[in-house]
Amino acid sequence: MSKVTLRNIILLFVIVLAVAVWTLYRIFFFPNTKVQEGEFALLIPEGSTFEQVCDSLDSNGTLINMASFKKMANLRKYPGAIKPGRYILEDGMSNYDLVLRLRGGMQSPLRLTFNNIRTIYELAGKIAGQIEADSATIVDFLTDESNYINDGFNRNTVISVFIPDTYEVYWTLSAEEFYKRMLKEYNKFWTAERIKKASTYNLTPVEVSIVASIIDDEVAKNDEKAMIAGVYLNRLRIGMPLQACPTIKYALNDFTISRVLTEHIQVESPYNTYKYRGLPPGPVRCATKSGIEAVLNAARHDYLYFAAKADFSGYHNFSTNLAQHNRYAAEYHNELNKRKIYK
Hints:
Elements: H1 3-29, E1 39-44, H2 50-59, H3 66-75, E2 85-90, H4 95-103, E3 110-114, H5 120-128, H6 135-142, E4 165-169, H7 175-189, H8 192-199, H9 205-218, H10 225-238, H11 245-252, H12 289-296, E5 305-308, E6 316-319, H13 322-338
Helix pairs in contact: 5-6, 9-10, 9-12, 10-12
């Protein structure tokens, strides 16, 4: 073999090797994601196949070159190691970084928010849009007391576990995992100090949540919650019916009622606090932290009644006797009539 031929063979080998190295470099490290707003959340449900992952990336136009992604995925054996989760993909990611994130299960947490929830059905509907578990699965879990009876809750009181706030969680939460995470937050919230405060009113944490849920539904102004809490605690102390309108709405399952009438308070229900003394069986909504704190730090006074002010400011007039209360109530009802609010 002549020197020229050998040189040509070596040159050809170097060229082929350079092309191969360049091709691999492009597959591994060239930017291959195109994301409109800086980042994109790729959701991979439990049981997904590699083809379904590719379909999700393709349908959202996230990948610049699908073929190179598949080559990288196969090199890293990703098709046999699909992990569910919510993965944040940034613009300009390489196949190497992308597969590393997906294969490693390095999902990104999300901020789970819920508030203004009255029933477990509303809760399930709100949560299902934010985590993988669907609303039916969440409802099924929360309506089966055997899932949490050992935690000290029942079908009526389990709603107290869910304290409205924003929590950082993973999208892959199941219904059970969601409950357990909220139970952990509930137990963290109920410190020894708060439990001790509750005991000074002869209330358990769940009972505090029941009172707080009523206050949250009845009071528009946070700075008045402690005053209202004082009224309800005074009624409980002397054995007077709570006569709380939110419990009637809950009993009727009609939260559109603006004006509780005599016909409404005839409803037969353990939640009818006009008929039955003491606390209803459970909260009438997810009690807020401000509502709970209002009960634990209730204003000390002698008031037994309160009526919404006729100026519709959202505040109330307080009374120690029924005659005075009836005068305030009449003023408010007259204003309701003027505004043609009859129900």
